[in-house]
Structure prediction request, 260 residues.
Amino acid sequence: MLRAVLPHPLLALTLVVVWTLLFNSFTPGTIVTGIIVAISVTKFTSVYWPSDTRVRNPREIIAYMAVFLWDIVLSNIQVARLVLFRSGDRLKSRFVTVPLDVTSPEAIVALAATITLTPGTLSVDVAADNRSIIVHCLDVDDPDALVAGIKERYELRLKRILT
Amino acid sequence: MSLFAEIVITGLLVIGAFFVLVGSMALNKLPDTLQRLHGPTKSTTLGVGSVLVASIIYFNLILEKFTIHELLISLFLFLTAPISAHLLAKAYLHTKD
Prediction:
């Protein structure tokens, strides 16, 4: 019953939050309008969200966000140091292939976005069979350690969040 | 209180400006297209992020006007930066072959 009215509860909740933030006021009027908008948007766009990916562990999202934000700060400092103090020709840039264990499109997108926003790495493409992400590294000494780090730090956590 | 808030805001603005500057320097300095992509995708997220946090503190503490919709800017930045980086990288790889 709930699924018929609200096919994607989490998406609807996000829309309500974004709506109230856009208005920048927390009056009942905005929140009610937000709820109406969120319900109709999720209802009318549910055809475009065919996969039934469920968020299993909402509490893990907060942990993931904390790790992610902290890594953004670290990655900025690291990249800033490379840019300021190393000449571009001496950077050991290369491509690395990260094999994937997660299978759902949502998880792959989240992982690719995380890779792009964190230390010295940039997801360039997803392999045609969706089994690996091609990552470009700005400066890397040990590619295997980097891949292991990505898998352990982000993918394991993502696996616990998205099925 | 107000002085302390002002110091924090100034610090955040300086940090933000520094990282945006470094991001632009990366664009100018690095030799390879893919390397240049690293600058804007990362340095600017923290740069813009600090400026936005400074804006939140300024409006809430100094002007005493409740506002947090700056968070939306960072949300949209997190959503769009990887996508544009991905498209640029992909376009680059296609022109290279």
Observations:
- Chain B touches chain A at residues 18-19, 22, 25-26, 29-32, 34-35, 37-39, 41-43, 45-47, 49, 67-69, 71-72, 75, 78-79, 81-83, 85-86, 89-90, 93 (CB under 8 Å).
- The mean pLDDT of chain B is 83.
- Chain B has one domain: 2-96.
- Residues 2-96 of chain B form one domain.
